[in-house]
């Protein structure tokens, strides 16, 4: 008799995507059926996203009321709902390795997505939407940015985007920055390097596409916080998209291209003793988990994995080393803080919450549930309404204490929550990234 459930921490197997069998559709379908049958008998993950309700509805509407009664062609309906947040694997599933059933739901979905992409069944519009470096070519050119931002807010442009790119006309979309973060970042002061027991005393910043092209203020806030704590920093010499948007499509060759552009650069900083910080959880997760699982034998990848930090993971470790300033001069009042999925699955604990709790006269309302945004999922016409439905419990919880600020480490989730709260008449509260809140609390201009 098989052991029921799993008491050990989940472990991850490398993704064998270079093996020709990985793209064998028949074998993948057999694995999908095996996993779907286990999930159907368990149903613990039904409230996480729309993937599991889609699966369970297919089963419940089948003639046998079992997975064997579901048309195999409909399996992709389940796959298309998965945005690889990893929460089922890391927080819910009792059958992950080392359990003998060896269930890895998100990476099985990734395999199915990779087969779909290899078959040419992912449209050019979806591919363009996931090409953040292409979008970023507009950023930093003031006249072009002003025109593009103005046009993108018109009904005509949003209607055209919905028709051509599949972007829902009602979904919040980011604007381009008139000056990129990388070109406007202040140089570090000449602080002495103070290594701690847990932390390197110097930092390399991986800007990320979103901070560089869309909201550079988040990056400037990080630099101000580092400077206030007398931590010398540099921006990495050059960078490309981390590859997460392409991973979500199953475009693993493009993920490899991003890896080959980024890892040689980042390895130099890792081997030179820098802590590498990324202010977007999805980007941090790529270097901490997904790229190492795709390239498990690459020693440079493993060196970067070891050196990569979430900003608040790093700051709290500095506090434990006795090297973090806590001279906060500005209380924040009531803050509703959302922990994004790609932050939760890094296995670092609630480091942002821990930092915000250091700030005097600040009351925290922490929400630990998916907002529904999930990268490009929440802006697509096919999924936007579902994304808003998934996020509704978060919207309600965030507005419960009439907060002075709402905040999320994932700024895209933050904007999604802000939109959902406004549409449900919950709050007009100011959205501020946690790094912005840290800078505010320190009283830094």
Describe the structure.
By secondary structure, this protein is α/β, with parallel strands linked by helices. The protein has four domains: 20-118, no CATH class; 124-165, no CATH class; 181-319; 326-442, Rossmann fold (3-Layer(aba) Sandwich), CATH 3.40.50. The protein is 48% helix and 7% strand. The protein is built from 22 helices and eight strands. The chain has helices at 25-42, 51-60, 75-79, 87-92, 105-118, 124-129, 132-135, 142-152, 155-165, 181-184, 209-213, 216-228, 244-249, 252-271, 281-294, 299-307, 311-320, 341-344, 351-356, 384-398, 411-423, 434-442, and strands spanning 203-206, 233-235, 275-278, 308-309, 333-338, 362-367, 405-408, 430-431. It has a four-stranded parallel sheet, sandwiched between helices. β7, α21 and β8 (430-431) form a beta-alpha-beta unit.
How would you summarize what this structure contains?
The chain has helices spanning 25-42, 51-60, 75-79, 87-92, 105-118, 124-129, 132-135, 142-152, 155-165, 181-184, 209-213, 216-228, 244-249, 252-271, 281-294, 299-307, 311-320, 341-344, 351-356, 384-398, 411-423, 434-442, and strands spanning 203-206, 233-235, 275-278, 308-309, 333-338, 362-367, 405-408, 430-431. It is α/β, with parallel strands linked by helices.
Q: Count up the domains.
A: 4
The backbone outline, from C-alpha atoms, is globular
Order of helices and strands: HHHHHHHHHHEHHEHHEHHEHEHHEHEHEH
What Rg, in angstroms, do the CA atoms define? 22 Å
Largest sheet: 4 strands, parallel
* Low-confidence regions: none
Helix percentage: 40-55%
User: In DSSP terms, counting alpha (H) and pi (I) runs of 4 or more, how many helices?
Assistant: 22
Structural category is alpha/beta
Mean pLDDT: 91
Let me know the number of strands: 8
Strand order of the largest sheet: 2-1-3-4
């Amino acid at each position: 008799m098989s052991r029921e459930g799993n008491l050990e921490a989940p472990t991850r197997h490398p993704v064998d995507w270079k093996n020709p069998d990985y793209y064998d559709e028949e074998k993948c379908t057999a694995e999908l059926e095996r996993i779907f049958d286990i999930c159907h008998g368990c149903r613990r993950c039904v409230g996480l996203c729309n993937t599991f309700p889609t699966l369970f509805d297919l089963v419940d509407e089948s003639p046998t009321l079992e997975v064997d009664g579901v048309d195999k062609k409909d399996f992709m309906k389940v796959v298309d709902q998965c945005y690889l947040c990893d929460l089922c694997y890391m927080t819910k599933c009792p059958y992950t390795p080392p359990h003998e059933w060896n269930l890895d739901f998100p990476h099985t979905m990734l395999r199915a997505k990779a087969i779909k992409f290899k078959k040419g069944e992912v449209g050019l519009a979806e591919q363009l939407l996931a090409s953040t470096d292409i979008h970023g070519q507009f950023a930093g050119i003031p006249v072009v940015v002003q025109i593009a931002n103005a046009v993108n807010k018109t009904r005509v442009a949003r209607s055209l985007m919905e028709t051509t790119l599949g972007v829902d006309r009602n979904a919040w979309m980011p604007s381009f920055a008139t000056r990129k973060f990388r070109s406007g970042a202040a140089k570090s002061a000449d602080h002495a390097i103070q290594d701690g027991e847990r932390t390197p005393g110097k930092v390399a910043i991986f800007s990320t596409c979103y901070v560089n092209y869309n909201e550079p203020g988040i990056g400037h806030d990080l630099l101000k916080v580092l400077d206030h704590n007398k931590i010398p920093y540099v921006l990495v010499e050059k960078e490309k998209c981390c590859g997460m948007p392409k991973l979500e499509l199953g475009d693993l060759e493009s993920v490899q291209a991003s890896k080959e552009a980024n890892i040689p650069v980042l390895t130099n900083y890792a081997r030179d003793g820098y802590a590498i910080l990324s202010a977007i959880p999805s980007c941090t997760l790529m270097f901490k988990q997904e790229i190492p699982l795709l390239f498990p034998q690459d020693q440079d990848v493993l060196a970067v994995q070891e050196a990569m930090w979430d900003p608040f993971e790093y700051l709290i470790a500095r506090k434990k080393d006795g090297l973090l300033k806590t001279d906060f001069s500005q209380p924040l009042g009531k803050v509703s803080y959302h922990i994004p999925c790609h932050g939760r699955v890094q296995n670092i604990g609630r480091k942002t919450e821990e930092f915000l709790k250091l700030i005097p006269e600040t009351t925290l309302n922490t929400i630990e549930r998916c907002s529904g945004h999930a990268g490009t999922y929440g802006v697509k016409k096919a999924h936007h309404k579902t994304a808003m439905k998934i996020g509704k419990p978060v919207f309600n919880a965030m507005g419960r204490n009439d907060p002075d600020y709402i905040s999320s480490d994932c700024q895209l989730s933050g904007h999604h929550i802000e939109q959902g709260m406004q549409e449900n008449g919950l709050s007009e509260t100011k959205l501020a990234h946690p790094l912005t809140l840290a800078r505010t609390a320190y009283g830094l201009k």
